[in-house]
Amino acid sequence: MLRVKHFAWIILSLFCFCFLYINRHLYTLPSSSAAPSTIEKKILDEDNNNQMGGKQASLSSSNSLLIAETIKKYIATNSVVVFSKTYCPYSMKAKNVLSKYKLKNYKIVELDQVEDGDLYQNVLQEMTGARTVPRVFINGKCIGGGDDTQMLENKGELKQLLTNANAIEL
């Protein structure tokens, strides 16, 4: 009986280890609380290069450049841009605050519905210092996220920013 229990624990331990190992390598997204450290990025890049014969890093870098150009284009051609996720309560907060105004040249990019949404977030982190959504841009400047947008509205400053950006339809 003792051997059966011991064997069961070994099987359970192996199962847990395999499950964690597979999840770690299939889902290499950084945690929501912090981006991966420089060392973690280097390890992930080396793993990707080893697995893909060096092609993964250049492909990822190429995609990042294309996405950075796309983001810059959105920001340059629209008075207001929100990089959002459909299920995020902070994104909903920012969009609800902005919906009080009749905006022109307003773009919402739902990162959970676009290809490479995680790469968009990585590029936005490089541009703004934060990886979280939403990222709200008015007149080419990032004003922050949902709480920041709400705070500006509460202080009466959001309408002035939108007016200065010529973003409100008359």
TrEMBL record:
<comment type="function">
    <text>Glutathione-dependent oxidoreductase that facilitates the maintenance of mitochondrial redox homeostasis upon induction of apoptosis by oxidative stress. Involved in response to hydrogen peroxide and regulation of apoptosis caused by oxidative stress. Acts as a very efficient catalyst of monothiol reactions because of its high affinity for protein glutathione-mixed disulfides. Can receive electrons not only from glutathione (GSH), but also from thioredoxin reductase supporting both monothiol and dithiol reactions.</text>
</comment>
<keyword id="KW-0676">Redox-active center</keyword>
<keyword id="KW-0812">Transmembrane</keyword>
<keyword id="KW-0472">Membrane</keyword>
<keyword id="KW-1133">Transmembrane helix</keyword>
<dbReference type="InterPro" id="IPR011899">
    <property type="entry name" value="Glutaredoxin_euk/vir"/>
</dbReference>
<dbReference type="GO" id="GO:0015038">
    <property type="term" value="F:glutathione disulfide oxidoreductase activity"/>
</dbReference>
<dbReference type="Pfam" id="PF00462">
    <property type="entry name" value="Glutaredoxin"/>
</dbReference>
<dbReference type="InterPro" id="IPR036249">
    <property type="entry name" value="Thioredoxin-like_sf"/>
</dbReference>
<comment type="subunit">
    <text>Monomer; active form. Homodimer; inactive form. The homodimer is probably linked by 1 2Fe-2S cluster.</text>
</comment>
<dbReference type="InterPro" id="IPR002109">
    <property type="entry name" value="Glutaredoxin"/>
</dbReference>
<comment type="similarity">
    <text>Belongs to the glutaredoxin family.</text>
</comment>
<dbReference type="GO" id="GO:0005737">
    <property type="term" value="C:cytoplasm"/>
</dbReference>
<feature type="transmembrane region" description="Helical">
    <location>
        <begin position="6"/>
        <end position="23"/>
    </location>
</feature>
<dbReference type="InterPro" id="IPR014025">
    <property type="entry name" value="Glutaredoxin_subgr"/>
</dbReference>
<feature type="domain" description="Glutaredoxin">
    <location>
        <begin position="80"/>
        <end position="143"/>
    </location>
</feature>
<keyword id="KW-0318">Glutathionylation</keyword>
<dbReference type="GO" id="GO:0034599">
    <property type="term" value="P:cellular response to oxidative stress"/>
</dbReference>
<protein>
    <recommendedName>
        <fullName>Glutaredoxin-2, mitochondrial</fullName>
    </recommendedName>
</protein>
